[in-house]
Structures are given as C-alpha cells and as structure tokens.
Amino acid sequence: MIPRAVRKPLAILVAVLALVVVVPVLGAGGFLLWLRQQTPAYEGAATVPGIEGPVEILRDRNAVPHIFAATERDAYFALGYVHAQDRLWQMETMRRSGAGRLAELVGTRFGDWALRLDRSMRTLGVYRRAEEAYEELSPEARTAFDAYAAGVNAWMATRREALPIEFQLLRHTPEPWRPADSLVWGKLMALQLSGDSRDELFRASALKSLTPEQMRDLFPDSDPTAPVTLAAALDGMNLQGALAALPDLGFDTASNEWALTGARSATGKPIIANDPHLGLEAPILWYLARIVTPEHRIAGATIPGVPLHILGHNGRVAWGFTTTHSDTQDLFIEKLDPQDLGRYLTPDGSAAFETRQETIRIAGQPDETLTVRETRHGPVLTTPDAADAAPEGHVLALAFPGLDAADTTAEALYRLNHAADAAAVREALFLHVAPQQNVVYADTAGTLGFLSPALVPVRRGGDGRVPVPGWTGEHDWIGYIPFDALPQAVDPPSGQFVNANNAVVGPGYPYALATEWPDPARAERIVQLLGDGPHTVEEVAAQQMDELSLPARDLLPLMLEPLRSVPDLNGQAHAALDRLAGWDGRMDRDRPEPLIFSWWERELVRRVFADELGPLFQSYWDLRPRALRRVLTQAPQWCDDRTTPAREDCTAMLASSLKSALAEIERRHGTDMNGWRWGAEHKAALNHRLLGRVPLLGSMFDLSIPTGGGAFTVNRGTTRVRDPQEPFSHVHGPGLRAVYDMADLGNSRFSIATGQSGNPLSPHWGDLVQGWRDGAGLRLAGDRGTLARDGATLLTLSPTRPGSSP
C-alpha cells in the first residue's frame, strides 16, 4: 500500500513518463497490446525452482486461488507465486516504503516527497526492525516466510508474461524478494494504526492558545484537558517541524466487528462479522486466498507481500480485528549535555547516543548520508526536515513498542493462523506486540472470546497526551500492562461482543489505555441492529451494509430548529430545510438529503472553529457532530466570528453556513434539488494512484463507484472534508468484509472492493466492485472436483527436479 503522502507526486511522475515516452512510441494500440502481455498464466503447467512437490492452484470464477499442496511449505511457496503474478507492483511499493528506498526509484525531479519519506523510515529504522523480527521467528514460522519469498522469486525468474506496466514505465527491474520485505508491512501497519504521536503534537499546539474548557469543547466525551504540566521546553518547539519528521501513512483506521454466541445465533454456533477500514484504492490492499494441505487449511484475506492470512478462518477458529486506539507512543524531549552536545542527559547522568549512518540513494543525484541517533527512549527525529523540531539544546525521541528489536508480532500471527481452538488463539496473541488490536475470535466448539493484545506502556507519571521531558525520568515507561490485565472476556452473558473503535474499557479500568476514543456511533448502531434476538448469517451480512447515521439524527434537529423563524432565507434554503425535516438519517447514495446535510455540517464546522484555531484548523477540520452538539447546546460563544466586529450567534452561523453549502452544491450540480444525489460526490475512490493519471488512458484505471454511507454509519464511507476539490470523495472504508459461520465455515462470506488482479486489462481487475458496493459475498470452499465443475482454472507448479529439495 502506497502511503497517502506518496501517491499524488508519483502519479504525476508516471503520467508525465507515459505522455512523453510511452504513448508516442507505442501508440494507443501498441500500448494496449503491451498491457495485455502482462496477463498472468492462470492455466497450464509451470516448472519452477524451489518447490518440493507438485502444487495445484485452482482459481475460481473470481480469480481467488485455492492452493492444494502436499506440504505447508509448498503451499506458502505457491502463495508467494500467485501474489507476485497478480500484485507485484503493490508488493514493490510496500517494501520500498518501509525500507526508505523510494527516492532511488523516482528521485526528486517532481518534488522531494520520496526523499522525505525515506528519511523518516530510515530514522525510525523500520526495515532494520523487520530484519530483527525475522530473527525472532520460530523455525516453523521462518520456514513459511522463506518459502513465500522463494515463491515470489520463482515467478520473477520463470515468468512468461511482461513485468507489470508500472515497472516498465519506470524502467525498473525488481530485486529478489527477502523475508524481511514481508515483515516490513507489519511495521508500517503498526506505525499507521498507532499514530497518537501526531495527536500529542496537536494537543501541545492547541494547549498553547486554548483554555482547558475550549479543549473540552473541541473533544467532547473525552478528557483531553485533565491537568497537564507542559514541559517548559515545549515553548521553544517547532511543532510543525516535528510533524514533518513523522511519516504520514494516511488514516489511522476505523473498523467494525461484532460476534454472537451460539445462543444468539440461528445456527446454534457463533457468528463473527468483521470489516477493517483502510484507505481505498485500486487494486485494494486485500487479496483473497485459500490454502489446503493435509495438515493445514486456511481461507480469508491476505496482503500481497505477506505469507500469512491477516484475517480469516482455519477450519477450527475464526477471528476479526479492529484497532484499539490506545496510546502506545510517546514523544520525549531529550536535553543535550551542555558539556558535550554529542551526548544527552538522563536521570543517571550523561549518556552517549547510539548512532548509525544511513545512505539514501536518489535517482539522478548523489547519495545522501543521514546520521541517525537513538536515545534510551527511541529514535531521535532529527532529519533535515525537522532540524528545529525541538527547542535549542534539545532533541525529540519517539518511544513505541513496535520499534523494539524483540518484536514477536509476526510469530503471533503465524500461531493464530494455526490455532486449534479458542485457548490456542489466546496463547498465540500473548506474543502480539503492536499495534494494539481488538481481536474477536471463536472456535467450532462454540467458545467466543475477545482480547486486546499488545505491549501497552505503564508510565511513571503523566498520561502520554503531550510531549514530555526525557531527562528527568518522571514520565518514563516502567513496564507494560500485564497480559492477563488487558481487556478480555470469553462467552459474554449478553451473548455478544461489539466493537467499532469505541472504548473497550470503562472508567474503572486500573490502567491508562487511552485518554480519548473515536465516536461510538457505529457501535451504538450495531447494538441497535442486534437487539435481543437471534440472527442468521444472512442477517449479519446485511447489518454490515447499514447506512443509518445516528449522529445525523441527533444533530439535525439542533440545526433545523433555530432556522424556522429566520426571515431572510430564500426559497431554495426553505426547500432544503423541508427535505431535511423529513429525512430519516440514512446516507442513501440516491438521495439529496445526505448531500445537503453533509455539506451544511462541513461549512458549519469551518465557520464555528476556524477563527479560534487559526493555523491548527486544517488539522482539526472534519465532520465533528459531537463538538457541534456541544456548541449548539452548551457553548454558543464559539459561534461568534472573531474576525468580524459584529457579534454573531449560532442562528446566524447556521443560516450563513446553509446558504454557503447550497451555493456550492448548486455550482457543482445545478439548481434542481430533485436531481442532487449523495453518490454524485460520495464515490469510492477506487482508482489506480499511479496509472489513473495517464493522459487519455487514465479512465481505464478508475473503478470509482457511487456509494452510500458516511463517516458514522456501519457501512462506513469516510471522506476528507478539508479537500477543497473532492471533500466527500469516499477515500476510506471497508475494503474487506467478512462474516464467519462457525456452524459451517465453508458458508463464511468475503468481499473485497476491487478485484484480485492488479492488471487493469485483466477481467479480474474490477469484477468485484459492484458486488462489494451492493453487499454481495464470496464463499471460499470446495474440493478440487467441485471447483473444476464450477469453472475454475488449473495451474500446476512442479519442481525443476522432481523429488528434490530446494
């Protein structure tokens, strides 16, 4: 997955190359023929080095590979082979992002974005930690990663098709795959899903100019303003510089999971629903696959580049993840030793930095050498992008368990893939380090469990919400929450577990897990849908598609009531208010009301908060129903625009923001309100981030489709409202959905947002888009004969020397 900061510049680069080099040389016809030559061989036979015995790969009508192998090692080899066939470019950008090696591919001719990302990754030592994680693997897990890498390399060495177009446009030949290339993805995810260090910097910035009461208004229902003693050194921090030093890997996710015990299920056995939410693109991050060996069976969602199933079932247990949003990162302000600036101060005196040199290759330019320092807390954010992030005489260090050398998260996932029952799931998750996840799991015997595994720091003092002094020791980590004390339960009396990133513990929990939690609206809606009765698998799958917004239902009356007596609203405004008064809060793609309400809410947030927050507003700008509710019911002073001499009230703000919203909708969609549609703006952004901008041909790479839902619906459709051009483009959401039937795991359903192939001319590039949008699901089951009768293709891999070992 390409980090969001990387996508736009690299897309521009590819478009320029295609326009200047490729299209004039080949012509449109030659270009299309060139693409067709990339279609991988799904049928026939291939002789490959590194495999022990024959493997049959049956791809069903949706191109999902069902891998039948005599040994688990050969099955992992085959998974690497099919991943490389279908998604090699995705794999290449993932490993280069984590290794800090993008600049050597694209240089700086079109901006220094790749170089800045490389500096961040080298500073954090992400790939080094991936290499160290390989050393922590058990022999069995190491065999899986080794075999997978061999499979990727076997395809690259024996392929008959051309390399994917992205490689050819950049005239790049991929290097052999290494096991650490697979492990680096977990590091990237750990950073993305634990990004509270950025929140620390925002809070520190805001607390400089806002009162505790104002902070409480900005973040209702959390406690971001409990007494905090800011280090005096914060006064000299360049917080924007510090943000520049931290990698921006996109949304920190929001996901859904719920599970029913057998008593709440029509089948008499548990049912699990799970849909992780990440950035949308084409191809989607996820890749469905099934493995069948005499000793091991597993089906579900993989990530190209990784040999293990991230989410799925193994015929005995099934599991799902959501992100906990706990605080597992701290920024420490380290004081340099005034007698020796090459050292820093600790409670025990002066200490030497651990240092190393990182050489970053830059295409078309000399190499850059970066000196990286680490303190007892973690890597120092002292790249050129953040040279003045800390006050003079200080540096900023990041503490995060996911950057520790002894990270056994990959081993935990390997053991989870092989767990025989619910007890074995818990044993496997004991090894999970980062990011903290809420794992719901069940076994075929009927046990249902919930556990939030990770290393979560216990602090000597403070709560981790702002950067803290590192030289005093008063905020040091003194350990981690004991595994047995982490949030967990088995077979709940209510018959259900529900999590949609809402709080997993209450105020009585004895440890500090988080100081604030995401909006609980999705979880509240799931609880409503479940009620008290039993449910079928089909009903649970339908619940994943629910598009009712509880925050819209809650906030809308507060927005409508003050405007009923406003005299200067025009006819269009009154028509909009009449429509909204009869709206049920469903974010239906074919209705105008969600569009009107969302644009009105976007404008209201801007008008209410932008003047007080100033430069910080861009970081805060989002749909903020809880904050708006607080303003309209308890804190109307925010409605006064500080940039004008007049004193505005909330009625004036509501009226002006409605007028502004309607004017913008009219400009974009005409004056006929009957023709307005939420889906006209809210389209799932399923486009190829690179090839989608190729002149004349870009549309063939775009799979975008109108969708329903919104940021607070179960069928989540998150937008980036601060985007001036496409504020309601559906850029983040459930790229994968899964429902597990523990009474018949072959009846489990899966859906991904695009298709299995990364080749835009493959029939499987976007064949799953409409079904995903409309709630269809695939079953990953069947023996060889059944799959063949249903039209599966067969590719047989055979060793170069039958019976030989690699």
Task: Describe the 3D structure.
By secondary structure, the chain is α+β, with helices and mostly antiparallel strands. Among the domains are: 196-250 and 330-399, Aminohydrolase, N-terminal nucleophile (Ntn) domain, beta-sheet knob region (Penicillin G acylase, beta-roll domain); 550-584 and 592-676. Helices cover 35% and strands 18% of the residues. It is built from 24 helices and 29 strands. An 11-stranded mixed sheet has the order 1-29-2-3-7-8-9-10-17-18-22. Strand 7 (287-292) and strand 8 form a beta hairpin. Helix 2 crosses helix 6 (139-158), helix 2 (72-99) crosses helix 8 and helix 16 (550-560) packs parallel to helix 20. It is globular and about 85 Å long. The protein starts with a helix and ends in a 7-residue tail after the last strand. The model is unreliable at 1-26 and 223-233 (pLDDT under 50).
Round the mean pLDDT to the nearest integer and report it: 90
The helix tally amounts to 24
CATH level-two architecture of the domain at 196-250 and 330-399: Roll
Proportion of residues in helical segments: 25-40%
Strand order of the largest sheet: 1-29-2-3-7-8-9-10-17-18-22
GO biological process, one term: antibiotic biosynthetic process
Binding site for Ca(2+): 200, 327, 330
Cofactor: Ca(2+)
Pfam families: Penicil_amidase
